Predict the structure.
Amino acid sequence: MDSSAHKFYPVHGFDSREYLETYFSNKQEMGFGDDSIKFPMECLDRAFSEGHIKGDLLIDISIGSLIHHLYAASGYFKQILVLKVSEQCIMELNKWINTRTGAFDWSHIMPYIKWTEGNSDQCQDKDMTLKTAITKVIKFDIDKENLTDPEVLPPADCVISAVFLDFISKDQDDYIKNFRKFVKLLKPEGHLILFGVLNTTYAMIGQDKVHVFKCDENFVRKVLTDERFVIDHSAVQKRTAVSDHTDYETVIFITAHRE
């Protein structure tokens, strides 16, 4: 990583609202929806509908203030804890949870929820179901062995992470180190869900060019197997978005469980 050309998220942060507007909005000029919204939501619905991934507690460690990937999960877990590294992300997320003025509008994802749910009446209740399921938003420190120190979290039935490892890892060793910290939050028999981008070097967020760790599918799969995870399902989708805001080639979705 050329530190003079790229900002590094754990050090410099970024504007979480700008990130949402750029990569997760319904603005026609952005056009990332098939990759960032439709693909992961459909993958998640299939994963949860199989009935193997469920339980009392899900912990989410995802980039920015994302929530769309948690809609499918909210019907399979009694409680969702969301971990964030910055106060700005927490404030942005709490705006949505508490239905405050100025919260990011996620209404454009409802057609995808209807597609996966198959029942439009249920979709009207999805917002409240998810907001109720998120019982706590916790700030954490990626440099600590216990990420939420001094608070000790109960072991989770599932940990889900969307894109986060890509933004916080400088290189392969850093990715592996961060991965190991994440999976410490899991029960011995717990499940892991990863959604990320492959062969990426940067993402533009406002005027900032932010570093993204470049890796391929083989590397991600090797990290999981080396750490004694069995990959249950993986899917890779070739990039559909036409934009110079970021240079990813594909997006990846993986579900796995401890061996």
About this structure: The first helix runs from residue 9 to 12. Residues 66 and 131 are 13 Å apart (CA to CA).
